[in-house]
Amino acid sequence: xxxxxxxxxxxWLDRTYVWPVLKGMGITFQHxxxxxxxxxxxxxxxxxxxxxxxxxxxxxxxHELKRFEDGAIKCVACFMCQEACPARxxxxxxxxxxxxxxxxxxxxxRPAKFSIDMLRCIxxxxxxxxxxxxxxxxxxxxxxxxYDRLSMKFGKWDLMNTYAExxxxxxxxxxxxxxxxxxxxxx
Length: 187
What we know:
Shape: elongated
Radius of gyration: 27 Å
Strand content: 5-15%
Strand order of the largest sheet: 2-3-5
Number of helices: 7
Order of helices and strands: HHEHEHEHEEHH
Distance between the termini: 85 Å
Helix content: 10-25%
């Protein structure tokens, strides 16, 4: 079964191709003038990276491991986020917090290693939903770029310092000694 193709008859002006090109240039010039005289806040295009788009509430961007005021990590290495992750991009190795666990009855754990493979992450937010301590958040930063695949595997310190500069906190590279125990257990 054949397809009937309707042949378009071009006028002599259209056959010169000058008039259609001029019409296209006129439309482009109209858009140029509209962008030129529109205020910056109302423009559809922004001058990235000098300007950044404001992301809506609920946007799930880069991860952050939250910490207490004294700098200690909030994560208690319960593995809930690792189990909830559908992409299996989170890996955790837990460690006992200190000798206080044995000598004074404090039940404290923290992640010795915590890593998220950003190339596998689908930013679904299941890790944030599963965390009982509210220790992992997906915030609004969307700039994820690297020169190689290994640098896209964010470790514990990368995740703790992701938003340190934005929040005005000091970047840390080792676990601080906690001033008070977080939770005690009955002995």
